[in-house]
Design a protein that fits this description.
Elements lengths: L1 E6 L23 H19 L6 E7 L7 E3 L7 E11 L2 E4 L6 E4 L4 E4 L3 H10 L3 E7 L10 H12 L1
Antiparallel strand pairs: 1-2, 2-8, 3-7, 4-5, 4-8, 6-7
Helix pairs in contact: 1-3
Amino acid sequence: MIPCLVYEPHCEPVEFEDAGVTLEVKNPKAYYPLTAMLVAARSLIEFECGHAMITQGWSVCVDSWPESGRFMLPPPLAPVQGFNGVWLLDGDVWRDAEISDADLHDTGHGLSISFESDALRQACALANTPLQIDLTVGYGDHPEDVPEPLRLAVGKLIAH
């Protein structure tokens, strides 16, 4: 199972000022490495806790349908805001599997996802067809939507 970031968050959960970092930068190009540090801090915290902070889009590529019928989602693919679809590889073209519903289940060790479509399951099992599952994840579109402990963790990592 390979997770791929489709679209990044449009903002970060904390600003440098929120983290207690005072910047006296005279050259605007100096902001690039500082911004990269902020993105890296958020990404590290997201991976370690298994939760995306700000809304982002992800695709999960799977080689074949698992025997259990449930796919375990790798971090940071929680909390799930929306299920955007399933795509099947048909030759050289990805086609919409036309599944409108998914069952999400918190196992205590991460999220799993399953689909009620027996026809899709059988078609994938027979042909060993790769799948792509598209999800929207994160707590919300704004920094204030992110739980305070996660925002504090990013701030502490930046200030360190």
